[in-house]
Amino acid sequence: MVSSNGGSSPFLESPVHASPKMSPQTDRQVMSLQYKLNTVQNEFEIEKLRLQQQSNLLDKKYRNVVEELEKALDDTKYLYETNGRLEQELSDLKNSSNQNDDTRDEELRRLRSELRAKDYRIDELESNYQSKLSKLERKLENNQVESQSSQTLLKRYEEEISKQSGQIKMLQRANSEKDDELATLKASNVVTQHHNYSTEDLQELTVTNKMLQDQLQYSKELEEANMQQAGELKRLRMTSESQNFWKSENEKLQNKVEQLNLLEKQFQDSQLENVQLKSQIASWGLYTDGKQSPEDIVRDWTLTKKECIVLNDENKKIRFDLMNLKNLNDELAHERNQLLELNKNYEANIINLKKLNHEVEQQKQLSFEECRLLRIEMEELSKFSKDSNRDADAGYGSLVDSYKNQTEDLTGELKKLNDQLLAREPATKKRKASDQLGLNYSQRLNELQLENVSLSRELKKCQDTITILEDKIKNLTELKEKKIRILQLRDNPLLKDQFVKRKQLELLKKENADLLQFAQANNNGDKELESVPISVYESINFEIKQREEGLFRANKKFVRLKEVFNKKSLEFIDVVNSLLGFRLEFQQDGKVKIISCFKPERSLVVDLNQNTLKSNLDRDIEDWESLLQLWVDQRGQIPCFLATITLKLWEESA
User: Fold this and answer.
1) Fold for domain 582-653?
2) Any coiled-coil ranges, and where (predicted)?
């Protein structure tokens, strides 16, 4: 009988009289089950063939793996020696890194202490400079006030002295005249001493005497005034000497002020050197990933050191595992050699037994042939002499029985050999299991070799890191010994910012001084001046220039960003055009124009604000409305709609 679906399997044949009540669903289930059964049978046959092929391949691979295992033993020995050598190098590097760590820590501590001492010295010099400068300014102001007062007093005394000297000269002339008159009077008195004087003459003489006494008193007063003026003049001379002394002191103070200016320049130079040191510290970022300081480098170095210690421990563990693996590999090799010897013995025994079995079979056939011949001879002899040869027949019968017993013994031995061969099959299975174990050990050995290679690479990376850190430490130690000239850009932002700040500070100082003078002039003058100092204009002009430069930089940055944005937008449009087959044009009011690469003259306009779609592709695509209704209105899949349009246009262009 043939099945309903034409199959040949006897299990799927329908009965002769099918039930009229069988539903179509049952038929479909029967057909599906029949199809599944055929599929399973085919898969079973295929899997059976594949397993046979795999068994053959595994048998070949076993021999290859045995050879690879021997090679792996040699490689393991080489890796063990290499590992020992690398471990020795790692210990040497560890010792050298510890020594370098100690020296670098000492050098860093020394540099930090020197930096703190220099900072403290700079602060101390700055404070001393400020205090000395304030004291000298106060002394200079006091000396200027005293000098001005002494000059005015000196002028007044000089005028008084000139006036008094004129009066003294006049009084001296009057005194000389009076002396002449006294001399004449004395002479006349000698002539007329014996004459009698009249009352008028006496009165005149008394008046003259009184006048002379008054003049004498006045001359005494003038002498006292002259003495006072001489004392005052002496005091003025002393004042002049003190003024000269203060002038010399002022010159000394001016020299000190110049020295302080030099100190200020030195302080500015030290500040500039400090800035250079900061820039040198900032230049550490060139040797690192980010903005790192020497502390960060030390921290990274300590982390690397810890990682190196961890790797050393892992290396020791791997070495211990490698030793265990080596011992296990030696044991497996010894067991493998024993198994190979047993296999050779078993194969030799099997060959000998096969030879013996063949010989036994030959002897069996010969014995059967001899028995047949003897029976023929016995039948012939029985015809001639039945009575006389009964004893011979009995001998022949016993001989036949002996042959039968020998054949039975040989068949028993053959069965025993077959049983022994069957008993040896588990041993072969065990050998295959041991071979699989050797394969697993060889795979584990390959994995350990790969891990050893990766560890050697990590060790090399650690060595490179240690050399880089040693170079950095050497550069740090040589930083104090010689000045490092850092190659800076022409438009260095740090120096430019410092220059701008210094220029702005100078302009502000100048503006402050000019405004103070301007305020003093306005306070002293009667009229208010309708002008400002030129330093105010220069300061405002400098600030305007700085803002213009900032605006120029901002505009330049904006133009550059705009160019980058346009470039990236074009790249995005090109990528969309090359991948999706459409070119996008973003228009105003949230509209996007989509142009197909197959019909550049046609386009779709999507209004994202109003959720509308306009196109002139309905002339080129016949079922435009149906596609729009299906993909957009019903399913809401605009990408599928665009993909369908692309396929339609491609078909038309092709």
Assistant:
1) Copper Amine Oxidase; Chain A, domain 1 (3.30.457)
2) 86-188, 243-280, 322-363, 445-479
